[in-house]
Amino acid sequence: MNYPYIKQFRKALVTWYLEEQRDLPWRHTKEPYQIWVSEVMLQQTRVDTVIPYYNRFIEKYPTAESLAYTPEEELLKMWEGLGYYSRVRNLQAGVREVVEVYGGKVPDNRVDISKLKGVGPYTAGAILSIAYGKPEHAVDGNVMRVLSRVLNIDADIALPKTKEIFEEAVTKLIDIENPSAFNQGLMELGALICTPTSPKCLLCPVRDYCTAFHEGNPSSLPVKSKKLKTKDIHYDVYVIRNKDGSYLMEKRMEEGLLANMWQFIMVERDEVENSLTKVEKQYNVILNRELIEPIISFKHVFSHLKWHISSYLVDAIETGELSQLNTAFLTKEQIESIPMPVPMLKIWGNLT
DNA sequence: AAGCCGGGGGT
DNA sequence: ACCCCAGGCTT
């Protein structure tokens, strides 16, 4: 794009953003910490999903100091249902570093802010431009889609290397006068107008500067290669109830999928007799095999795998000492206070 | 560079 | 069924 057009493109984008932007909670603040929270929640997550979580989170943890030393289980409960739970662990680690190393002030340069846990190239640029007004690129999926069309770039955006092309493009195009509105304008345009399928080109404020609109095919961009196939795993989930009306639960491992979240007893599907024997032995209980009541069967899709779950309610006739520290019989009130992944919430919700 | 890490909504 | 979403970390 030639220089005169760059200036006009900036102006058109920023003017449109300032007039048409949605009223979102995190647009009422310029506190770097609060912008940070919003950006982490928005990673791979839609605006409408984030809004209630953001409001609750900021109300409870309005400052870096208030978040820094909150127990992890409480944070996971606040994050419950949002997904990608390592985000909140990393956020807290980063925030704690800000409190302890930077005196509570979020760094205002890319080198230092990028050292914080959970802050990658995008989040760094977003905080720097939105909270500090720095002319830094913030390239996410929206930006790559919009600019692939405006500049008619057909490089494969699934390749990490391709992102550098767009970072350089933004660095060249960005409005020094209002980096915040420019970066958010690109993303807002991607969310409202320059959508993945059927972009609303006739309503686009930068249509005049869009190469794909004039010389190419906006709908065919961006190019993205790799598509992943999910693996199928079948589980039987046993909701085991003791004489007190408490339920046997276990906490997942500290790392990996759904780390540190709680679940009912879950075993890979097998012959029913084998499953029950395995459960009885491992958790030192004797189950009433005469009365196994199906609760619900469903599929739960993750980004890289698919769970097929069948769940059952069964009474423990006898219970012994639980050998593992991460297992316990919990009351209804306790269960509703611990963080559980959505599949377990679904089973719990169908229990009564 | 590729795999891992959730969940929901749109088409 | 498939795609994508205000991505980052680990290997």
What does this 3D model show about the protein?
There is one protein chain. The chain has two domains: 3-220, Endonuclease III, domain 1; 231-349, Nucleoside Triphosphate Pyrophosphohydrolase (Alpha-Beta Complex). The protein has 15 helices and seven strands. The protein has helices at residues 3-20, 32-41, 47-60, 64-68, 72-79, 86-101, 110-113, 121-132, 141-150, 160-173, 179-192, 211-215, 272-283, 332-335, 342-349, and strands spanning 231-241, 247-251, 262-268, 285-287, 293-301, 305-319, 327-330. Strands 1, 2, 3, 4, 5, 6 and 7 form a seven-stranded mixed β-sheet that branches. β5 and β6 form a beta hairpin. The termini are far apart. It binds a DNA duplex (11 and 11 nucleotides) through residues 38-50, 81-87, 90, 117-123, 126, 138, 140-143, 145, 159-161, 183-184, 187-188, 190-191, 195-198, 224, 226-228, 256-259, 300-304, 341-342. Residues 41-192 form the HhH-GPD domain. It catalyses: Hydrolyzes free adenine bases from 7,8-dihydro-8-oxoguanine:adenine mismatched double-stranded DNA, leaving an apurinic site.
